[in-house]
Amino acid sequence: MIQKELFTAIETHYNSQLPFVAYRKPNNSFVKAILQKDHTVRTVNDFTESGFVFSPFDSKNDAILFPLEQSISINCDCVFSSEISNNTNLKSNSETSQNTYEQHLELVQKGIRAIRNGTFEKVVLSRVEGLPISEENPIQLFQSLLSVYPTAFVYLWYHPDIGLWLGATPETLLNIEGLRFKTMSLAGTKKHNDTSETAWGTKEINEQQIVTDYIVNNLQGVLNNINVTGPNTVKAGQLFHLQSKISGILKSGILKSVIETLHPTPAICGLPKAEAKNFILNNEKYNREFYTGFLGELNIKTSKSRNTNRRNVENNAYSSIKTTSEFFVNLRCMQIKNKHALIYVGGGITKDSDPQLEWEETVNKTQTMMRVLLN
């Protein structure tokens, strides 16, 4: 399928108010779309299903599934050229008020007090910022995200009974191919300052290590041969993060138990998980919905040739079929609702956090979505 046909099919599905997801994986040129044939809201039961999953932050709520057997799958090798400004100090007409600013500082201060009182070690606190938009053109916004963020998982997700979401997330929750498992620990944020070197402070280094230690310790029960590399500095849009890569071999093929172990991670919730999550639900004073949830392909069968020499066509016939699942954490995202773009942002709070700096970090993170909304 050619590029124009792909986006025409997506737009037709959207105009018909039928559920769909379109997405592109990091550092990849293939845009895929799963177009559900009816309006039914289907949910994940035990993660043995096959399709595309969109799961909320609160795992007590249902994860939405677009099952392959009730959908049409299309894809295209697409090329995009960015025409969007690289201005890292974008100004907006967002509805951020003095009251919003003061509420977030108060929330962060409350989180720091809870940490110092021993309630938990870390908590991730967030807010939502509204930007009025004159018209809703999600296909164009999706194409802009594809142009600007080639190293992110970029998606456009829609269900008429649930809502419209877009994002460009830098964080993998998990990648499973057969029994081979990969994930990452991503924490700490600094704004890009046009230099190749980034000086990380104690707060960011400790925050990232907390996330790494938690993931490794909790995966001991489900993985063999755990390996950790990093942390290294990685760039996502106009922001830098600290990242460690974690891999291993699954002890069993039960995906549900692995997801329950990982989600929500300390990078988007806190540690200990139960106490931090309870604090978030009781104090953020808004519903995160799918922000800091996860999304991606579930139990997709893929074929891989055992021969890496493309010229040897005969041996290429010997290929292996593997089942793969790949989920991404829903960061750097927005919801389009009632002619507003609702941009969700947050940051990790530790005992060393400075409320003013935490506010500025959320402002920096809004620019991922602002760059495509204000051009």
UniProtKB/TrEMBL annotation:
Ranges for domain Chorismate-utilising enzyme C-terminal come to 102-365
Could you list the residue ranges that cross the membrane?
none
Give one Pfam family.
Chorismate_bind
Query: Which InterPro entries does the record match to this protein?
Result: ADC_synthase, Chorismate_C
Q: What is this protein called?
A: Isochorismate synthase
Origin organism lineage: Bacteria, Pseudomonadati, Bacteroidota, Flavobacteriia, Flavobacteriales
